[in-house]
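The data are quoted verbatim here:
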Amino acid sequence: MRKVLKYQFLFILSLLILASCGKKEQSSTTGWNYNDQKWGGFEKPDYQGQVTGPNLVLIEGGTFTMGNVEQDVTFDWNAVPRRVTVSSFYMDETEVSNIDYKEYLYWLGRVFGESYPEVRINALPDTLVWREELSFNEPFVETYFRHPSYNDYPVVGVSWLQANEYCKWRTDRVNEMILIKKGILNPNPEQKDEDNFNSEAYLANQYEGSVRKNLKDHKTGGERKVRFEDGILLPSYRLPTEA
């Protein structure tokens, strides 16, 4: 008798699980089904949180007092205290190294080298920053960026404009890697000139790429490209700014 009751309980439990799996999630304001072509196809992505990019660590945000928090005995009033709130953000765990920047230069040469060699040339770091009066840094001028013994050292001689271009490139490469790992795009090492993955162009439907399998379109029943609203692609990398 106990075995019969046990089997009946398991059977009912299985039916409940199957019923819950087949039930569509509904809007709490309209009652319409999400991700259902029969109900218009409004999509609610199954968002599990932002993917952490390579070498990034999460810095938790908070609120602090910026400015002079003690008595201003000189009455300069040039550091008036104010409450500042900083949102959580991601930051590289280490500085951008020489090998990281060499990878960037290699990609520029591979993609633009034949038609636009100046693109790579303009991205080269200024190794002459090592030269100073009354100092002998000439060996660093020749070896610091080029020799493999300095591969893991921080890159130097990069201007603000060059660093911004590096951030754009890194955004594109990381997002391309995410789409490849999710089976949406195929790796394409033959990209040349303007025919290369760019996050903004991809989101604006101006770049197709080597498609492996796009996402399901709940509106048409077919397939569609990834949108920023899906939460798959990362926001743009950027340089730190002052508060």
User: Anything to note?
Assistant: The chain has three domains: 52-93, 95-158, 160-242. The chain has a mean pLDDT of 88. Residues 160-181 form the longest helix (22 residues).
